[in-house]
Design a protein that fits this description.
The chain is about 10% helix and about 30% strand. The protein is α+β, with helices and mostly antiparallel strands. The chain folds into two domains: about 110 residues, no CATH class; about 160 residues, Beta Barrel (Cyclophilin), CATH 2.40.100.10. The longest helix has 12 residues.
Length: about 290
Amino acid sequence: MKKLIRIILALAIGSTLIGCSSKPGGTIDLTSHIKVSIKGFNGKGEVYIDNNTKYDKTDSDIRDFVADIEYTLENGTNGALSNGDEITIKAKYSKSKAKDLGLTIKNPTKKVKVSGLKDLLTGYYDCEIKVKNYGSIKLKLDANTAPITVSNFVGLANDGFYKGLTFHRIIKGFMIQGGDPNGDGTGGSKQTIKGEFTANGVDNPIKHTRGVISMARSQSYDSASSQFFIMHEDAPSLDGQYAAFGCAYSGMDIVDKICDDVKTEDSNGTVSKKNQPVIESITCKKIQ
């Protein structure tokens, strides 16, 4: 699955391409076999394209032609799509090269109507993280400041995604990190979200002080998924670089105990699977 804008994709070739190497000919169907998915939230939807269609790769000229084709959004703004929007996916290709190769081009565009996006949450949410053999950490989440982040986290939590997952990385004096289905920092849910922090063009005044909850990510600003961390102590260097979205109002003694008790394997806070504290559940409800 790859994001739409400016990503070069291998396109579907509708029929086998045969003939002489200088002008192989044949037909290329650019959009009929692609799967277009709209992910995210209403008003913040993004287009993704999945294309598993096989094609003849024996002709180097055809391979080069296909490699140079791009999908772009003809109308609408990717990352700001809403239910009901009618968008057009356009395959951009070299007409002169197609002519030189004797290719017939079919379906260079595909129309799609956006639907099924959930509305973003607003307001504040009360969240309880129950950790086996330790107790509960209670937090207040701010959907007004970080609506995408809170909507994603609350949705995963209330769908039971976090049940049985763990805190796999613990650094005393810094933070505890969990929410990875792989238990090693490499996993996540099926969806990544836009990073709501200053470096990514989003105003977020929440500071990474003790008790704050924030989203873990890779180097890509928009790579956060399900992994989160809770600050054990202040870390101003994270401000504006990670999407903080709430703060603990109870249970920081649980965070302290986890940091004190759990054995780590290295200076990066790696915890062996047998020693990882288990998340029994995470539940969230709107504060009326």
